[in-house]
Amino acid sequence: MSKSMSRSAKTVMMATLLIGSFITTFSETLMNNALPTIARELSVAEAQAQWLSTGYMLIAGIMMPAAAYFINRIQLRHLFLSIMTIFLVGVLVAAFAPSFPVLLAGRLLQGMAVGISMPLVQNVLTLMFPSNQRGLAMGIAGIVINLGPAVGPTVSGVIVDHYSWRMLFLCLIPLILVGIICGLLFVKNVTHTQPDTLDIPSLLSSMLGFGLMLEGFSRIGMIGRIDQLVGLMLLGSLVTIAFFARRQYQLVKPLLELRVFKSPAFRLSSLLAILTSAAVMAPELILPLYGQSVAKFSPTISGLILIPCAVLTAICSPISGRIYDRIGIKRIAVIGLTLSVITTIPMIFFNAGNNPWLIAGIYGLRGIGITLVYMPVSVYGLNALPKQYLVHGSTVIITLRQLASALGTAATVSATAVGTRIATNVWHQSAQLANQIGYQWAFAATLLITLLCWLFSFCLKNKSSIEIALKN
Predict the structure, then answer these.
(1) Does residue 242 contact residue 210 with C-beta atoms inside 8 Å?
(2) Cα separation, 346 vs 19, whole angstroms
(3) Which pTM was predicted?
C-alpha cells in the first residue's frame, strides 16, 4: 500500500485520518466536566449521567472487533465518510435531545462511529510503515489519541460555564464537516476489499457481557455497595465473556482473533495496554468531578487543570516512539511508570484546600510518565506478530484499551461511591468530608492500577521479535 502513493499524498491522507480520529476521541471525554450540570437539568443521578462517558467508551470498545469486517467489505474512502456521517447524526441527536434517554442514544451512536474509526486509523498506519518506523508513526498517532481525550474536559468546562451544555455538541459540527470535506478530497481507496462475514452471536455476546459488567460497576456507583443484583450481573458478564472467547477459537474467521495471544510478548503487551488505558482515563473523569464537588472549582478551572498534562502528552508521544525505535521499551517503561507511581501518590491526599496549580503540575508530570510507555507498548506487542496478524493484533489491542477505559472509569466511580458510603455510615463523617474521602478512594484505586503497570514493566524485554508463525 505504501509503495503505491507518493510521500506527500501519504502524509496528507494520514493527516486527514488523524483529524477524523481527533474529533471522535475529543468527544470521548467532552462530557466529563458537564456531567453535574446535565444531571441537574435532566433530573438524573450523577452515577446515571456518567453513562454518557462510560457508555460511549463501552459501545466503542464493543464495535471495534467488528471494524475488521467493515474494513474488509467497504473501501477506505467510503468507510471513512460513512463513519464521519454517522458521528454527525449522533451529534445532532444529542444536541437537540429532549430527555436523557435520547441524549444517551445520541452518545451511543457517536460511540459506534468511534469504535470503527480508531481501529481503521491504527490499522492503516500499521500497514503503511515498516516495523522499524512504527514507533514514530504510532507516536504521532498517539498525539491525537491522547490529546483529544485530554483537552475534552477543558473545553467542556469553558463551554458549560458560559453556554448551555448543548453547545458541547453544536461546536463539533463545523469540525465534522471539515473532516468530511478532507475525506472527500484526500482519502484514497488504498486498501482492497474482500469477502468477509460478521458473526452475530459473537457481537451480541460481547455487547451483553461487557454491558453487564459496566452496568454492575455503575450500580455500585449508584448504591455505594455490592448487592445480590450486582453479583448476578458480574457473574453473568463473566460467563458471557467466557462464551465469547471460546467461540472465537472455534470460528475460522472470528470477530476478534484471540490466537494472537499465543505470543508471550503480545500477551504482556496487551496486559500493559489494558492497565495503562485504565490508568490514563480514570483520573480524566475523576479529576474534573473532584474539582467541582470537593475543591469547589468552576467547570472552567476544573478543566484547565488537565491542560498541562495534555500539552506534555502531545510533546512526549512522538518522542517516546522515536526512543522506542532506537533503544527499545524496557528502560523507558520502567522510568516512565516509576514517575507515574511517584506522582500518583500525592493524589490520594487531595482535599478541599488544594491549589489548582499544584494539582495541574502533579497530574502533568504523571502524564509524562505514562506517555513514555502508552504507545510503545502497543508497538512492542505488534512487532512480535507475523505480518498476516498485524491487523488482528492491532484491533485486539485497541479494543482492549477502549474496554479498559470504560471499565476503569466505572470502577473508580464505584470506588468513590463506596468510600463515601463508608465514611458516612461507618465513620459518621460530615457529607462534605465523606465526599472528599470518596474521591480519595478513587485516587487510591488509580494508584493501585498504576502500581500494577509498574510491576509488569519489569517483565518486558528491550525489544520483541516475531515469536510464532500463527498460520502458514
Answers:
(1) no
(2) 35
(3) 0.82
Do 305 and 367 meet the contact criterion of CB atoms below 8 Å apart?
no
Helices 307-327 and 134-162 meet at what angle, rounded to 10?
A: 180
Please enumerate in sequence order all residues whose Cβ is within 8 A of that of 108, keeping only pairs 6 or more positions apart, or say none: 55, 56, 59, 90
What confidence tens digit (pLDDT) does each residue in 294-323 have?
999 998 899 899 889 888 887 888 888 788
Domain 2-188+197-457 CATH assignment equals 1.20.1250.20: yes
Nearest CA to 431 out of 418, 416, 420 is that of 420
Question: Three cell numbers at 14?
Answer: 494520514
pLDDT tens digits, 362-404: 999 999 999 999 888 988 998 898 888 887 888 888 888 888 8
Question: Are residues 449 and 279 in contact, defined by beta-carbon separation less than 8 angstroms?
Answer: yes
Q: Where are the domains of the chain?
A: 2-188+197-457
* Rounded-to-10 torsion of CA 48, 53, 55, 57: -160
Pairwise CA distance, residues 190 & 192, whole Å = 7
Which cell is 91 given?
451529534
Residue 224's region, left for phi above 0, alpha for psi from -120 to 50, else beta, is left
Per-position DSSP letters for 250-304, written without gaps between them: H-SS-SS-GGGGGSHHHHHHHHHHHHHHHHHHHHHHHHHHHHHHTS---HHHHHH
State the cell numbers at 136: 514514530
**Grid cell listed for 182:** 478532507
Q: Cell numbers for 275, please give them.
A: 492497565
What's the half-sphere exposure (Cβ side, CA atoms, 13 Å) at 301? 14
* Residue 337 cell numbers, joined: 511508570
Q: Give the Cα separation of 226 and 255 in Å (integer).
A: 33
Rounded Cα distance between 382 and 398, Å, is 11
> Cell numbers of 15, please?
493527516
Instruction: Say which DSSP state 32 is in.
Output: T
Question: What's the residue count for the chain?
Answer: 472
Distance CA 111, CA 83 (A): 10
DSSP characters over 185-250: HH----S--------HHHHHHHHHHHHHHHHHHHHHHHHSS--HHHHHHHHHHHHHHHHHHHHHHH
| CB 379 within 8 Å of CB 134 | yes
CB 123 within 8 A of CB 116: no
Query: From CA 7, how far away is CA 12, in angstroms rounded?
Result: 9
Instruction: Find, among 4, 366, 391, the residue nearest to 190 by Cα.
Output: 4
Would you say 196 and 238 are in contact if contact means Cβ atoms under 8 Å apart? no
Which pLDDT band holds residue 165 (cuts at 50, 70, 90)?
very high
Taking the C-alpha atoms of residue 13 and residue 458, their distance in angstroms, rounded to an integer, is 38
Instruction: Encode burial over 213-242: b for 16+ CB neighbours within 10 A, e otherwise.
Output: bbbbbbbbbebbeeeeebeebbebbeebbe
